[in-house]
Amino acid sequence: MQPVVNPVHPGLAIRVADQGFAAYVWGSDFSFEVNAYAEPAPGLAVADWPLRKVVPYRKCYGIDPEEFGSYRNAADSEIFMAYLDDQPVGHVVVSTNWNGYGHVDELAVHAPARRHGVARALLEVAQFWSRKKQLPGVMLETQNNNLGACRLYERCGYVLGGVDHMRYRGIDPQTREVAIFWYHLFADQPQVRQP
C-alpha cells in the first residue's frame, strides 16, 4: 500500500506497520488526562452527556506491541502507522470482527502529536480497509473517561451503538469506567433505526 498523505497536514502520512512498530510503541506516550466520567446518553451529543468531575489524573492502558504481532499483513487484519514529518506518531490496528464489521482493535496517538489530524487519518484508513473488505461499517470501543476520543468519534460520523456498565468491573469492582461502543455505518448499507 502506498502511503496516504493528508492534504490538511502535508507532513502526515499513513503506511502499513513495519519492523519499527515495537520500538515506536515502547518510545511513545499514549496517556491522556481524565477529568470527568461521562454518562453516555443515546440521542445526545457527547457535549451534552452528564459528567461526574474528578480530580484530574493521567491514564494509560499500556500497549503491548506483541499483542498484535499476528495482525500484520494477515488476511483479516492489519496494522497501520502514522508518520508526522517522517516520525512515527500513531497507529491503528484493524481486523474483521466476528459480527462482520471492521473492528478498530486499537487506536493510539503519541501525546505530543495530537491535534494534527493523526487519529482522524488513521480512522479514515481503517474505514478504507473495511470498505475494501466489503464490510458494512467499522466499530470500536472506548471508555466514558476518554471524552476526547468520544468527541473525535462523533465528529468522524460514528454513532453510539451500546454501553456496557459491567465490562471493567471484573478488573475493579469499584470502577466508574464504562465501555462505549461506537459504529460507523457505511452510506451504502442499511441504517439502524434508533429506538
From TrEMBL:
Show where the N-acetyltransferase domain sits: 12-187
GO MF annotations for this entry? acyltransferase activity, transferring groups other than amino-acyl groups
Q: Which SUPFAM superfamilies match?
A: Acyl-CoA N-acyltransferases (Nat)
Q: Which CDD domains match?
A: NAT_SF
InterPro entries registered for this protein in UniProt = Acyl_CoA_acyltransferase, GNAT_dom, N-term/lysine_N-AcTrnsfr, Streptothricin_AcTrfase
Task: Write down the PROSITE patterns for this protein, in alphabetical order.
Answer: GNAT
Pfam families associated with the record: Acetyltransf_1 (PF00583)
Query: Sorted alphabetically, which keywords does the UniProt record give?
Result: Acyltransferase, Transferase
Q: What is the protein's name according to its record?
A: Acetyltransferase (GNAT) family protein
